[in-house]
Amino acid sequence: MVKIKVTFPDGAIKEFDKGITTEAIAKTISTSLAKKAVAGNFNDQLIDYQQGLVEDGTLKIITKDSPEGLQVLWQTGAILLASALSELYPKMHFGEGKTTEHGFYFDTDNVDGQVAETEFEKISQKMKEFVKANMTIEYKVLSEQEALKAIDGDPYRMELVKKIAAENNGQVAVHVLGNFVDVSSGAKLAATKGVKIFQLLSVAGAYWKGVSSNPMLQRVYGTSFFKQKDLEAELKRRQEARERDHRVIGNDLDLFFVDPKVGAGLPYWMPKGATIRRTIERYIIDKEVSRGYEHVYTPILANLDLYKQSGHWDHYREDMFPPMDMGDGEMLELRPMNCPSHIQIYNRHIRSYRDLPLRIAELGMMHRYEKSGALTGLSRVREMTLNDGHTFVTPDQIEEEFKQTLQLMVSVYSDFDITDYRFRLSYRDPKNTHKYFDDDEMWEKSQKMLKAAMDDLGLDYYEAEGEAAFYGPKLDVQTKTALGGEETLSTIQLDFLLPEKFDLHYIGADGEEHRPVMIHRGIVSTMERFTAYLTEMYKGAFPTWLAPQQVTVIPVKNDLHLGYCEQLRDRLVANGVRVNIDERNEKMGYKVRQAQVNKIPYILVVGDKEVAEKGVSVRRYGQDNSKEVKIEDFVNEILADISSYSREVK
RNA sequence: GCCACUUUAGCUCAGCAGGUAGAGCACCACCAUGGUAAGGUGGGGGUCACCGGUUCAAAUCCGGUAAGUGGCUCCA
């Protein structure tokens, strides 16, 4: 018998007969391990529990309680779903089934009408039947011919089989459950019994292979766990994510709305949302001015020629509103970006090397024609105001300015207590270069420069091809929305192109003309997206400095205490605090509840005792106790709170 | 833009084997009301998204348009 050598995570090496399964090996280690185990990780690849090992390698036994164990369960959930579907809808075709961050999906295409959520009951029932019957899931390696026969004319799986066969000497590994043959890879449990606890979640369209020119399949999402309480926790997590959604909170707290009569993606800011936005705007302008930025205002409309010169008309037209034909030959365009506007400011004067870095900033309103399906609340809109800035530097100032910009960003993030983000270096797509400005040398140079600066700063990042702006590579700061989507919040971009296009120059120490480099940057993103992000991060309970209403004053009895409340209010207003008296004819318990529901940071209750002692009874949002303090002390407390921004960890 | 679903009072939603609308909250009025999460009674409010079709009759069935939701594609 031929032997193979298997290395274990602890470094031990043992010999086994060739063809031995992970299951058999687990049993040699301990019966309790064999009980918990569901699969193996052999040479960094998940394999079935009963798949034979035919070569030397390292093996990790995968147990139920590991993340990889869940992957195996979800793979099994996917094939169970597909198998149940193929029995219910015999004409259905199948794409790939995969795992996601929180479960699994399978892509389907039904000629008699796509599956809808209304059929989940029926589908779940069929899946439960399969679980109850504890059907075996067989791992097989077939020839291309056998595999094609097994999938019986399904065009999508046929494509997969041909591709896999071409890559594996004509061999195709498949899993078979009932009548269904799954050609998508991934280790699975040996039988359906393990997928006892599952839930179908939603359906959504998805292009075959993620290519928009391909047909659209129906993707059915589900999730599964080994324990009921884990499923319940996951469903609760999903529910809480929905409650955190800025669209829900924005509606409940009356922050903003979008009116179909006015147009999709054109948000209205209600007084409370506008207060939050104004606070952010004042904050960031002050911060930038203190860092040497010069804030300007420029028109949101410009002659189309400006965007022809900048290259936007060539490379960004899809995202632009169509130009307005003024009838006399003039074409006006709603600007999609502010860079050309700031270039005009640079060009207004002859610039000396002594002027650089020149930092131009603006809360610049822009319009982009986003596709209807992309619009989402405040985070994806067609009219937006970007915290935009462009620094014009000499080539040898690039690195220093990049680092300073990054420092500014980190400082702002700290003020807002934003901690959950990743840096992404966004390069052009080398296979699709026509989307970008055509200058290989420029791209090579600037991409290398960005990477070197990040390495020099010792910051963690990941690299992504195809994410660059058309004019240059970017450092993006990626964050997550409540519902799990990834979004760019901040961005710093190097640009050698626009200075060329607009023939920018500065006079150097040598008295000659030189070409400056531009750094585009957005720190707090657009007001729309940033407000959406903060709303979700704070769950609508904005820290005091941002809260639309910071204090509510509740008199115990209007007739006796209203006068004192007014004095108190005036004192706070004089200190710039946003405060209201709740003098409605209601019980105070009712008013306290209203204040809590509206997530107002401070509730001040005032009765005889407070009047007598020139004090207030203070209750913080989310707490169920209150404390008595002098007015003086409360004013100091809230002012300290406001000036600390969001930094205090609650 | 694409696939599926959804659209009923300011908000959240019920009603629907076709017979011209209901609840809770909010709002208004009156009564009650002194201590930290909802006092009572009454009232106003809807061309059932919009356009068309089927029918004696459409919120309900069918088609179209718009907007929204879940995703995909694309991006701050």
From TrEMBL:
<comment type="subunit">
    <text>Homodimer.</text>
</comment>
<keyword id="KW-0436">Ligase</keyword>
<dbReference type="InterPro" id="IPR002314">
    <property type="entry name" value="aa-tRNA-synt_IIb"/>
</dbReference>
<dbReference type="GO" id="GO:0004829">
    <property type="term" value="F:threonine-tRNA ligase activity"/>
</dbReference>
<keyword id="KW-0648">Protein biosynthesis</keyword>
<dbReference type="InterPro" id="IPR012676">
    <property type="entry name" value="TGS-like"/>
</dbReference>
<dbReference type="GO" id="GO:0140096">
    <property type="term" value="F:catalytic activity, acting on a protein"/>
</dbReference>
<keyword id="KW-0862">Zinc</keyword>
<dbReference type="InterPro" id="IPR033728">
    <property type="entry name" value="ThrRS_core"/>
</dbReference>
<dbReference type="InterPro" id="IPR004095">
    <property type="entry name" value="TGS"/>
</dbReference>
<dbReference type="Pfam" id="PF03129">
    <property type="entry name" value="HGTP_anticodon"/>
</dbReference>
<feature type="domain" description="TGS">
    <location>
        <begin position="1"/>
        <end position="63"/>
    </location>
</feature>
<dbReference type="InterPro" id="IPR004154">
    <property type="entry name" value="Anticodon-bd"/>
</dbReference>
<dbReference type="GO" id="GO:0005524">
    <property type="term" value="F:ATP binding"/>
</dbReference>
<dbReference type="GO" id="GO:0016740">
    <property type="term" value="F:transferase activity"/>
</dbReference>
<dbReference type="GO" id="GO:0005737">
    <property type="term" value="C:cytoplasm"/>
</dbReference>
<dbReference type="InterPro" id="IPR012675">
    <property type="entry name" value="Beta-grasp_dom_sf"/>
</dbReference>
<dbReference type="Pfam" id="PF00587">
    <property type="entry name" value="tRNA-synt_2b"/>
</dbReference>
<dbReference type="InterPro" id="IPR047246">
    <property type="entry name" value="ThrRS_anticodon"/>
</dbReference>
<feature type="binding site">
    <location>
        <position position="390"/>
    </location>
    <ligand>
        <name>Zn(2+)</name>
    </ligand>
</feature>
<dbReference type="InterPro" id="IPR002320">
    <property type="entry name" value="Thr-tRNA-ligase_IIa"/>
</dbReference>
<dbReference type="Pfam" id="PF02824">
    <property type="entry name" value="TGS"/>
</dbReference>
<feature type="domain" description="Aminoacyl-transfer RNA synthetases class-II family profile">
    <location>
        <begin position="271"/>
        <end position="543"/>
    </location>
</feature>
<dbReference type="GO" id="GO:0006435">
    <property type="term" value="P:threonyl-tRNA aminoacylation"/>
</dbReference>
<keyword id="KW-0030">Aminoacyl-tRNA synthetase</keyword>
<keyword id="KW-0820">tRNA-binding</keyword>
<comment type="similarity">
    <text>Belongs to the class-II aminoacyl-tRNA synthetase family.</text>
</comment>
<keyword id="KW-0067">ATP-binding</keyword>
<dbReference type="InterPro" id="IPR018163">
    <property type="entry name" value="Thr/Ala-tRNA-synth_IIc_edit"/>
</dbReference>
<keyword id="KW-0963">Cytoplasm</keyword>
<dbReference type="InterPro" id="IPR006195">
    <property type="entry name" value="aa-tRNA-synth_II"/>
</dbReference>
<keyword id="KW-0694">RNA-binding</keyword>
<feature type="binding site">
    <location>
        <position position="339"/>
    </location>
    <ligand>
        <name>Zn(2+)</name>
    </ligand>
</feature>
<dbReference type="InterPro" id="IPR045864">
    <property type="entry name" value="aa-tRNA-synth_II/BPL/LPL"/>
</dbReference>
<feature type="binding site">
    <location>
        <position position="520"/>
    </location>
    <ligand>
        <name>Zn(2+)</name>
    </ligand>
</feature>
<keyword id="KW-0547">Nucleotide-binding</keyword>
<protein>
    <recommendedName>
        <fullName>Threonine--tRNA ligase</fullName>
        <ecNumber>6.1.1.3</ecNumber>
    </recommendedName>
</protein>
<dbReference type="InterPro" id="IPR036621">
    <property type="entry name" value="Anticodon-bd_dom_sf"/>
</dbReference>
<keyword id="KW-0479">Metal-binding</keyword>
<dbReference type="GO" id="GO:0000049">
    <property type="term" value="F:tRNA binding"/>
</dbReference>
<dbReference type="InterPro" id="IPR012947">
    <property type="entry name" value="tRNA_SAD"/>
</dbReference>
<dbReference type="GO" id="GO:0046872">
    <property type="term" value="F:metal ion binding"/>
</dbReference>
